[in-house]
Amino acid sequence: MKLLAHILCLSVLDRCEGLEMDAVAVNEEGIPYFFKGDHLFKGFHGKAELSNESFAELDDHHHLGHVDAAFHMHYEDNPADHDHMFFFLDTKVFSYYQHKLEDGYPKDISEVFPGIPDHLDAAVECPKPECDEDSVIFFKGDDIYHYNVRTKAVDEKEFKSMPNCTSAFRFMDHYYCFHGHMFSKFDPKTGEVHGRYPKEARDYFMRCSKFSDDSDHVERERCSRVHLDAITSDNAGNMYAFRGHHFLRRDEGNDTLKADTIEHAFKELHSEVDAVFSYDGHLYMIKDDHLFLYKVGEPHTHLDGYPKPLKEELGIEGPIEAAFVCEDRHIAHIIKDHKIYEVDLDASPRVAGNEVPIALFKKVDAAMCDALGLKVIVGNHFYHFGSPMLLAASRSLPEQHRVSLELFGCDH
């Protein structure tokens, strides 16, 4: 009966329905985990799964059916705790490293974090210098506790301008308090909230098909924390960035961004592309095992006979991670399964060849060549490489850049 209830819940639990998450934390690889009841959403999109599939021991003590709070520890001076995930259930705390429960856990919260109460509402890590010392901020009702992880001292705070948090989250060096399905960004030292908050969490942290009624479409897409699916610039230098059901466009010589749905501008695709590149006045749009071809213009014209199998058009099986064309203009570079391939677009038939491994990234979300070189986008950051050859040859990461700030001018 319990298994049947889990199955039924999995079938209806939808993050886009405005769920109030019980806890939010990132794992060791920076992937956000959203907890709701006995279930877990990994990343910014995808279906719910049972949390005990990833953290089996939580279920053994899961009397209330949900995680009260969670955070990812940042404490480089103590490797025994650094990069661990901590979960709080009632009076107990669990410490996991790479999804394995640490020996001796669960323990009483008072034993591991003396001075911190039971039955918490939220918790979030705060490394220095974002806080004066490496700390954890705990929330319970109106009470705020700054816990110094080195000295174990507790400093009670009063965050007057911030609502009570049902969960809290540190992401891209910013701090977010979730209250219901809304969120506010706050200063971890003072609790001050600056800017136009609260905002709808589904507009910024979920990949949902519809905007909320009062959403600013451009604001949502350029400042969303959801990763990009694809990005390209056409022959005229106009940039297109695709995410879920929507895309942003910025025309050459004009800093103004426009947002629209894929369904409206590329109706044959409907939504969610895997990769896009521009060649000879056309947008090559790849989804699963098929290639859609559009002539650049207003409106974009879908060519007769498409979509066609990706294998037939580019000589490679889908799905792929990213695709781009650089200054050579007739060579498409395809990224798939830790490798980069070259496809001569002037050849017939086209064949994916010159396979070279990529050592730097487990997965690439999107990539684009422009006048400044190659941008490789992973999560919410991108990296500059002078050429595809340098991407394949590099053994260390270049400087990291923020997608929302440096590509779209969003600083919040």
From TrEMBL:
The keyword Membrane does not apply. It comes from Seriola lalandi dorsalis. GO terms for molecular function: heme transmembrane transporter activity; metal ion binding. Belongs to the hemopexin family. Glycans are attached at residue 164. Its main location: secreted. The keyword Transferase does not apply. This is Hemopexin. Residues 1-18 form the signal peptide. Keywords: Disulfide bond, Glycoprotein, Heme, Iron, Metal-binding, Repeat, Secreted, Signal, Transport. Binds heme and transports it to the liver for breakdown and iron recovery, after which the free hemopexin returns to the circulation. It comes from the Eukaryota. Hemopexin repeats lie at residues 64-116, 117-161, 162-208, 270-317. One of its GO terms (cellular component) is extracellular space. One of its GO terms (biological process) is intracellular iron ion homeostasis. It is found in: Secreted. Pfam families: Hemopexin (PF00045). Disulfide bonds join 16-208, 126-131, 165-177, 326-369. InterPro entries: Heme_transport/Cell_adhesion, Hemopexin, Hemopexin-like_dom, Hemopexin-like_dom_sf, Hemopexin-like_repeat.
